[in-house]
Amino acid sequence: MNTHVVRVDIDHAPYDILIGKNLLATATAIGQHLRQPRVAIVTNTTVAPLYLSQLVFALQAQGISCQEIVLPDGEQFKTWESLNLIMDALLTERAERKTTLIALGGGVIGDMTGFAAAIYQRGVPFIQIPTTLLAQVDSSVGGKTAINHPLGKNMIGAFYQPKLVLADLDTLKTLPDREFSAGMAEVIKYGLIDDLEFLQWLETHIDALMARDETLLAEAIRRCCENKARIVAADEKETGQRALLNLGHTFGHAIEAGLGYGAWLHGEAVAAGMVLAAYASAALDHLSAEDVQRVIKLLEKARLPVISPNLGAEQYKALMAQDKKVDAGRIKFILLRQLGQAYIGELPETAIDAALSAGCEVVK
Amino acid sequence: MNTHVVRVDIDHAPYDILIGKNLLATATAIGQHLRQPRVAIVTNTTVAPLYLSQLVFALQAQGISCQEIVLPDGEQFKTWESLNLIMDALLTERAERKTTLIALGGGVIGDMTGFAAAIYQRGVPFIQIPTTLLAQVDSSVGGKTAINHPLGKNMIGAFYQPKLVLADLDTLKTLPDREFSAGMAEVIKYGLIDDLEFLQWLETHIDALMARDETLLAEAIRRCCENKARIVAADEKETGQRALLNLGHTFGHAIEAGLGYGAWLHGEAVAAGMVLAAYASAALDHLSAEDVQRVIKLLEKARLPVISPNLGAEQYKALMAQDKKVDAGRIKFILLRQLGQAYIGELPETAIDAALSAGCEVVK
Complex ipTM, two decimals? Predict the structure, then answer.
């Protein structure tokens, strides 16, 4: 299989995403991007036994010295405390301004390592090696880094671009089914936002994709990265259209916070959140009932939750009011004008209520 | 007195420094720079009773709502914990992405508030109102923000530019003598780095400056800000010449860390550190003994310490090896080719030893 290259054209810091096989095991692309033959690899206890020694071996063979920082695994560890573990480790080993941080793992590792790179000594280079489908199509592209706060997800962070992203298909082989599905939620998101043709392509190939056909997966990842790269290059700091990428996320973040981080995977919450956004769009007469069912059906085939937990309308609203997209007290929602055409808008109370009553679990 | 305006021409984010009187009490310039009529003012327990109500009154008169965040005072509070207090307060009050943070205080408040602005919701606007001489001439210009870590000063931070800086001379009236002197250390630094004419001007006017003549002070602050703005505009991220601004800081940081943060003021440590840098430059035959004495005499007239604490050469070297300017294990020093001409270079062990034995307190 050929390696796909997607260029992310951020003004001041363009970089490449490589998508293919055998990227991690050779690590040749990494060596070319270092400012000194020294890296610190941040990973977690799940990924380390699978890929860390392979990566370290490939880097050491190029004469690169490697510090290993292994964190506990899970969204509930995306905290100040974990970030501080990275800082302590870097300072103890005297990592320098030219030392490159490498994020080896999923979205949580990528977000935390990117943020650590943004603030260690006011900024050091970093490289992403996303090992989950979700991270490959979404969180490793675009430079959003963050940690969570008890009062809100991703509330503390920075916009900070990597020097290089390696999306190695080999790492998807070991991905648990539930994580794989969570990644498909973000894949489907790109179709819903502004690529109807891709949505149709996904409907055609969903079964083969779920069977992890590598050629189709590489194609899907490339297409998602291209979509995201285009949106991010036009609006790095999310002053406008980049917010479209948050389709399903305002509801989704409320689900994650309401259930406690880690109970649902991020992608699962986004899937159920996209269904709520679809119901809300239907309440505004943008989508038909058939459109909503089409969204639900595709997500179901990707083995994702389509019914949201019943937190109660008040708790949903309180949690959503904490969202970063709030402006002068008004929550900005990402809604669908039609399938494949998202927009940023406000939701009347009645539409929120309609969406929640259609999309939430019925409490008996 | 007219208000001086110094433009800082950072590529992507130019901004003005206003230097004058009555800036805080009217706060008219602030209103024009807000993205929503809402600010959060971060200050400390020393500055709050002096200036907070005045500022809040002036802002509220313009219809701007103000959140007040008052931290304990001192370099020893420039920590994760204080930063977290700011984050907690902002999240509790649901500060938004367009809410502007205002730093009202000295260098510690400015550095922490700037860093908080850099990372809260991945970046919100901020405005600096430096209330110490040191902050007015140095730490509020150039966008370096940071907190300390037990293993090193300013090790965690970001480059993040303010939208506006107000240097109000009125605030210097209440500044304790020791703090005023500490600010003069940074003023003198600009003369030593690359402005011999300014150094001579300072030698002429040092007594009047120490008597806080407002016209002379405004002139000195303007000149320091212009010097710094020029250096920073050319090298925002300190990949080259910006490091010259760290004259006296490599030794100075070692003094601060060695004695425990807060024992000496930053400016005091920089003063003694500049004397060590001068001795080191003499050991390299760049400066004459008379040059070194000229530096010492000016610092003494500014009532600054010129003799460094005797931490022992080994501890000095160990602490300096933690500096951010270390590259591949080699410490970069800022040295003087002659008075008014600094350069970045390495120091042989013998020159470090010579400087420490000439400049440190003799233990009996």
Answer: 0.88
